[in-house]
Structure formats: C-alpha cells, structure tokens
Amino acid sequence: MLTYETPKKKPGRFLALTSLTVEEFEELLPTFKKGWQTDVEKRATAKRRKRKIGGGRKPTLKSPENMLLFILLYFKIYPLQEVQGTLFGMSQGQANDWVQRLTPILQLAVKRRSAFTRTRASYT
Predict the structure, then answer these.
(1) What is the mean pLDDT of each run of 10 residues along the chain (124 residues)?
(2) Burial category of 50 from C-beta neighbours within 10 Å (exposed 0-12, middle 13-18, buried 19 and up)
(3) What pLDDT sits at residue 124?
C-alpha cells in the first residue's frame, strides 16, 4: 500500500507522482487538514446518523498526509479507480468514494493557499 512516507524519501518520484515538491506538499497540508476537519464536523452534525460516530467501516486513508497524496496522485495521473484503489489498498468503489469526498477539500485548500500566497507577496 502506498503511503506518504514512501515517496517522501525520493523527491524526484514525489514530484512525478504529485506535481509538488515535498516542501510544497507540506505547505499545502495544514490548509488541507483544516478543510478535512471542517468536512468531518459538517458531516457529524448534518443529518441523523444510522450509527454512532466511529461506527461502521474504518477508513483506509487514516492520515491527512495519505489523503492529500491520494487525491494529488489521482489528479496528476488520472489512473483508473481500480488502479488507484490497488495502490492504496482499497476497492474501486472505495477509491471512487474518496475521490468524491476529497476533491472539494483539495479545491478549497488550493484556493485558500493561493490567496494566502498572493496576500503575503503583496506585503513584501
């Protein structure tokens, strides 16, 4: 199973998989984490639950680092979801669910990060 720690050790491979350097990835990560936490909180309060929080199947992608790697790799190389699932140790259906859930979080993180970078650049 592919995890963040594996390609992180090889910067050239990391860049090829994600289009980001390890440093750029780590700069984007806090914004992505905030977006993920907001999504989790929104889902927890959005509707009546069938199970208690924490119930049900445990997620394959447990860390925000692996989630961000998953979605960046998906948009970089657009593999079949069957292939994406195999790389990350999940089924095609689970890969599809993760793509659908992480795409808006990534979009928001990139938008916020670029706005922050533009604002910071205007002060220098």
Answers:
(1) 94 95 96 95 78 76 96 96 96 97 96 68 47
(2) exposed
(3) 46
- A 10 A CB-CB count for 80 gives 10
- pLDDT at position 59, please? 83
Nearest to 78 by CA among 64, 54, 95: 95
pLDDT at 93: 96
pLDDT score, position 4: 95
- Asked whether the beta carbons of 107 and 21 are under 8 A apart, the reply is no
* Helix orientation angle between 64-77 and 92-123, rounded to the nearest 10 degrees: 100
E-state strands within the chain: none
User: Reduced to 3 states, what is the DSSP secondary structure of residue 122?
Assistant: helix
Q: Tell me, what's the pLDDT at 113?
A: 82
Determine which helix (DSSP H) or strand (DSSP E) holds 116, and give its type and residue range: helix 92-123
Extract the tokens encoding 108. 């928001």
8 A C-beta contact, residue 68 and residue 25: yes
Residue positions counted in the chain: 124
Domain boundaries, the chain: 5-44+60-123
